[in-house]
Amino acid sequence: MTSPQLKSLLLDTRLPRLEVRMLLEHVLAKPRAWLLAHDTDPLAPEVAAAYEALALRRVAGEPMAYLLGRREFMGHAFRVTPDVLIPRPDTEVLVETALECVAGVAGPAVLDLGTGSGAIAISIALARRDARVMASDVSAAALAVAAGNAWDLAASVRFVEGSWYEAVPAGEGFDLIVSNPPYVASDDPHLDQGDLRFEPRGALTDGAGGLEDLARIVQGASGHLKPGGALWMEHGWDQAQAVRDLLSAAGFEDVHSRQDLAGIERISGG
Ligand code: GLN
């Protein structure tokens, strides 16, 4: 069998063109301009086979981020594996809000609960080199990914293993707590659709109605916030009022929500 030309793979109609190019860039370790300039090159059989293996996984629905092993967030390239949730563009509003919250604080202490890939904690640490950032996760596998990202991106973050506040030293007061916890209800049919099928269940759903982990985070916050400290959390499209109520009931003041890129109230805090 003769080797196929790169051109014939670029015309793979099983996948969107952009995804075909991204997978080819990945297996060839070459930028897009190179692909287009070399499209009549014969492909080494192992490259063609590597492409085919990834294309088949993509056709079966596996997220691009897991196939490529990386995803951009806040302008940084994060490594991702199926042990961590794939960072979403909508979560950038949580980071932007966090940075606004601590804009006037010198050397702010920030805690990220359920850090996953570390995208939130690391983005904050990179934007505020003077910050003391701690991040927790219950999953040792997720923390290994997060620590790798902090290393690759030269960010200073202290990672601790435990559920929510469990591994956060008592008496450590934070100016800001942030979290993108699991908030999808366990009976939500979306868990069995699209990318979510491949992501860690424990990062998506609380195993109940969706508000349990959000409530735990709110209830534990007062023991870990400095006076005047803030808490901001991401939540589902229909949870803003419930999360504001949780915050108000716990004594937070100036409680409000902010919209994501689609205009949906996606984060709440106070
Ligand atoms: N935003 C994600 C989704 O529904 C859920 C993330 C989460 O549970 N924290 O696709």
- Percentage beta strand: 15-25%
- Which of globular, elongated, flat, extended, rod-shaped describes the shape? elongated
Count of helical regions: 11
Helix content: 25-40%
Task: Give the neighbour order of strands across the main sheet.
Answer: 5-4-3-6-7-9-8
**Class derived from helix and strand content:** alpha/beta
Q: Would you write up a description of this structure?
A:
The strands form 2 sheets. The protein has a 7-stranded mixed β-sheet with strand order 5-4-3-6-7-9-8, sandwiched between helices. The protein has a two-stranded antiparallel sheet with strand order 1-2. It is elongated. Helix 6 packs across helix 7. By secondary structure, it is an alpha/beta fold. The model has no long low-confidence stretch (mean pLDDT 97). The protein binds glutamine.
Which secondary structure elements does this structure contain, and how are they paired or packed?
Blueprint: H1 6-10, H2 17-28, H3 32-37, H4 45-59, H5 64-68, E1 70-73, E2 76-79, H6 92-101, E3 109-113, H7 119-127, E4 132-137, H8 140-152, E5 157-161, E6 174-179, H9 201-204, H10 212-221, E7 225-234, H11 240-249, E8 256-259, E9 265-269
Parallel strand pairs: 3-4, 3-6, 4-5, 6-7
Antiparallel strand pairs: 1-2, 7-9, 8-9
Helix pairs in contact: 2-4, 6-7
Bound molecules: glutamine (GLN).
